Amino acid sequence: MDHASPQARESRWMEAMRRGDFTAAWEETDRIEIERRALEKAGRLIRQEHHLLWNGLPFSGNRVVVRCHHGLGDTLQFLRFVPHLRELAHQVTLLVQPALLPLLGCSERFGEIRNGWCEEPLPAHEVEIEIMELAYAFRCTPETLPNNVPYLPTDSLGRARAGFPIQSGAFNVGLLWAASEWNPRRSIPIQKLDPLRHIENVRFYSLQQGIHAGERSALKLEPLSDQTREITQAAAAMMQMDLILTVDSMAAHLAGALGCPVWMLLRNEADWRWLANRPDSPWYPTMRIFRQPKEGAWEPVIQEVARALRQIVPIHCRDPI
Fold this sequence. Notes:
2 domains; 4-stranded parallel beta sheet
C-alpha cells in the first residue's frame, strides 16, 4: 500500500487512535487537511461527506454553528466539548437530531439548540464545524478529555422516573442486546445471555428498541421497551437502574453521559473510540468494557459478565432473597 495513499493514512489514523495516541492521529489529520485545502484552493476538490467541515478558523470571539451529521450516539459522546466551545466563542448554535431536542432543549450549557433537520435560515456566523471534529480542533488526548459526568441535563427527568416499576431489594439491570442494523456484528443473539438467568437477586429490564425489542429467551425480562421509546424516557429509566448492560450502541453513550454505571459488551474488532485492550474508557468514567477475545466469541464475554455480577450483587443486596 502506498504510504501516502488515503487508505494508508486512514489505517495509520485508526491505529493511532486505538492505541490511545491521539496526538499522532491529529498530526495525520493535519497532513490530510493541508492537501485538501490546496486542492480546494485550486478548484480541484470534490467535497465529500467524510471531509472535515471545519476550515480551521479560530473559535474565539466568533459565532459558531455546530452540526451533528452522524449518529445519536456520536452526538451524545461529543457534546462534552460544546461547553468549552461556548467559553471561547461569541455565540454557539447547536443543530441536533430531532430525537435529542426533548433531552437537550431545556439546557443552557450547549448554546442555542435547534432542530438540525429543519430548513430554517441559520443565524449569522463565521465558523461551522461538525460536532465530532471538536476533539480534533481542541487537540484532546485520553488524559485531557472532558469526562466529568453527568454532562447531560438530568433535572427534567425527575417526573419521568416515577413511571417505572423498579423493584427495591434487587439488583436492577437495564439490558440492551442489539445495536442498530447498520452494524449487526455489534449485537448479541439474545439466547447467548441465558446463562445470566442463574444469578440470584438480579432483575433484568428490557430497554431494547427496534426490531429486536420483542425477542425473548430463557432469561426473564421485565419489559420496559414500550415505555422507553423516547430518549428522555430511556434516560429516566437508566437513572433508576443499578447497572446498564449494553452492546456498543447509542444506549452505551447515553448511560455513560448520564453517569450511570454501564457495562459494555464489545466485539473484538471494535470502533476506534474504545481504544484497544482496555477494560475501561477515558470517555466515560463509569463504564466497564467486556471484550470478545476473538471475533464472534460472545460466550467468554457472558461468562466474564456473570462472574462480575456474582461479585458485586451480594455487596449491593445485603439481605439476599
